[in-house]
Amino acid sequence: MGDNTLRIGLLGCIRFASKFVRTVTQSSNAVIIAISDPSIETANTFAAANNLSPETVSVYGSYEELLNDPRVDAVYLTMLVTQRAKWAVTAAEKKHLLVEKPPAQNAAEIDKIVEACESNGVQFMDGTIWLHHKRTVNIRETMFDSGLLVDIRHMYSTMTTLVPEQVLERLTKEAMGLAGAIGSLVGTL
Asked: Transmembrane stretches, by residue range (predicted)?
């Protein structure tokens, strides 16, 4: 691990975070060094399922413990969206943030997260991958900065997918809060 290696901790051990772990393990400039979940059993199960060695990855049974680990540079927040703003603001006191989408329940929560990051001099990035991908920069440069397309002000896109009923039931439980785009859609009906 070089001096420029980003040392990442996970706040929340949901299944989706496994994709993030796989991506980081393939990176030459980042490493997972800690994971946490309010349930230590869940954290240990996640660590084992993702081949995270106890010799190199600390496993914590609380978010506070991970946030107090001085080795962690940045955290990836994956807990329920109903809890993300609170933990993002708390984490921003010490760590850079990558917050899974949606990063908050509303614009006011986003404002609090951004304000906390700015006042503590840490970076904030949401999990909307395409916004941060180099292809997006290339699209802007090729289509807009070059003058090829000058009158377009907005671009809209739609993606649809069949969601099995049992998944929809799980994602729309009131205790889950807004569960991503599906929860947002169902919450407005």
From this structure: none
Tokens of 186: 């169902």
Task: Provide the CATH topology of domain 6-129.
Answer: Rossmann fold (3.40.50)
What is the Cα–Cα distance from 151 to 144, expressed in whole angstroms?
Answer: 9
Backbone phi, psi, residue 120, to 5°: -105, 0
Q: Which of 58, 9, 8, 50 is nearest to 30 (CA)?
A: 8
| Structure tokens that stand for 2 in this block | 């070089």
Give CA–CA dist 157/155, Å, rounded.
7
What mean pLDDT comes out for the span 112-138? 87
pLDDT value of position 172: 66
Each domain of the chain, given as residue ranges in start order, spans 6-129, 156-189
Kindly state the tokens that stand for 126: 């949401």
Write out the DSSP string of 37-65: -SSHHHHHHHHHHTT--TTT-EEESSHHH
Structure tokens at 118: 């700015």
Task: Give me the count of residues in the chain.
Answer: 189
SS3 160: coil
